[in-house]
Amino acid sequence: MKVPMRLVESPHYSDAALSVYIKVKALAMRPEGCTASLDTLASYVRLSTSTVQRGLAQLRATAPDGVVELPDSQRRSLPGGSGTTACRRVRPLRSTERFIWIPVVASEELKPRLLRAYAVIAYAVVRGIPLAERDLAGFLRHHSGPRAGEALTTEAAGRIIDELATAGWISVWRRGGFQGRHLFLVHNGPHPATPALDDRSGSDADARSLAYKEDLRIDRPENDGVPVSPAVGEVPVEEAAKDRTDRPAPVDAQGGRALRAENTVPPPRSTARRTGQTAWRGPQLTFSPRLNAVLEPVRFLLRQVNTYVQRRIGREIARQLDDGYGPSRLRARLTQRLAQTLVSDIRDPGRWLLGVALPRWGCANPDCESGVLWSTGTSCAACREAVIERAAARRERAAEKPSADAHHKPGRQPAAVPRVVECCPDCERPHLPGGAGLCAECRTRTATPSVAAPTAPAPSRCRGRNGLCGRPAPHGLCWRCRTESEARPPGETIGPAST
Predict the structure, then answer these.
(1) Residue 179 CA: distances (Å) to CA of 124, 125, 130, 131, 174
(2) Which residues contact 5 (CB under 8 A, 6 or more apart)?
(3) Taking Cα atoms as reference points, which of 93, 96, 68 lies closest to residue 320?
């Protein structure tokens, strides 16, 4: 049964509320919903009626995060006016909500506090999270008495683990995990302990019966001799197992077999060497309707993939669907990845589907899909912050590179560094090999005269008209003053130009 992790982790709900939730949700799977009375529910989960009533009240109340786990609880009455049991249904889980599978029988067999501890351990095992006793104690709290609201001690959490292991719901390897943490194996029901390998016939642990002779009847199958086929109509006679192994099978008949009543001999077994590439003669692989809906955009690529890889693709899609990703989201992801890739560049379709098309790209938010929130269609804030941080880091590297080049000595060869693609710190446009700093467009936009440009030499001016002309004249006189000097009479000077 899917149980939301907020119900397991939130201190707002008591331990009994978790047991009541699992049982009500299991009964609500019927078309008419959960119609069990309080007394019936109490008998199922082995709690008092008042405890079940308090658990239902907590599930119907609004939690601090604004969620109501039991929104549908309606009283019913018969046509004559007499009342009957209420009809209850829990809320549907969101696609991005964390949950854990808990067997319904656990709510009936385990005490409420043990059930919550079992749910926390099961979630840690599924997610591969190293779980210490102190971490487990943080999820278990006192709900009554002077210490209400406080977490249990580490010693109490250790005793709860021992109770679950003794009851057979988990298996524990002490100090076998990361940094001395316990390793857990979660069972779906009470798992009986493995019996001892000896019969404990000795008086103490070191004086028990030991095997001194090999029993071939329970050994590998190749130790058994070839059985003799009796004739049709005869009573089969079998000797002891040791006689079959000590004495070879009779070979007087053809193929080592007795003749049948119809005087025929069974065909001998083939002695051809078997190889691992035997052709598969079973039914062809088929996908369920929801997998077919997801794989619709890339169906033409599946024809080039063998059966083994197709099974892996089907398992990966089924895992993501079970995690809450809808078929429309996966289909849109495959369509987008295929649109961004040339079909001619896909050399291995199976590897491309498993490594490029199916994985989710984005941040830790399950709703993030390549930087866009799937539920709202807006850009992800966490991804934007990551882009800004990377741009700031590139600017810092671009600012540090000129200073490092200035302190480099000419006689020493710089250390070899891996080639990286430099980008513009402002617009993040990649440079050509060897480029760094701002691109040409950003330099033009943000250019500021930091150092005064060297002044060009003043051009020579015309000295005509008694030095009042002032026109640019690289050869002493401009063309107009030269023409006037050639045309004036001898001894006449050129006066100032008239206005």
Answers:
(1) 16, 16, 9, 10, 12
(2) 97, 98, 99, 100, 123
(3) 96
High-pLDDT (> 90) share of the chain, %? 22
Maximum distance among all Cα pairs of the chain, rounded to whole angstroms: 160
Structure tokens at 399: 């600012």
What count of other Cβ atoms lies within 10 Å of the Cβ of residue 38? 16
Q: What is the pLDDT of residues 450-490, one digit of tens each?
A: 444 455 556 677 777 777 777 777 667 777 787 777 766 65
Per the rule left: phi > 0, alpha: psi between -120 and 50, beta: everything else, 465 is left
List pLDDT tens digits, range 99-143.
Answer: 999 999 999 999 999 999 999 999 999 988 888 888 999 899 888
Q: Is the dihedral of CA 323, 325, 330, 336 positive or negative?
A: negative
8 A C-beta contact, residue 130 and residue 177: yes
Burial class for 256, CB neighbours closer than 10 Å (0-12, 13-18, 19+): middle
**Pick from 496, 475, 472, 90: which is nearest to 484 by CA?**
496
- 55 within 8 A of 48, measured Cβ to Cβ: no
DSSP at 114: H
Length in residues, the chain: 499
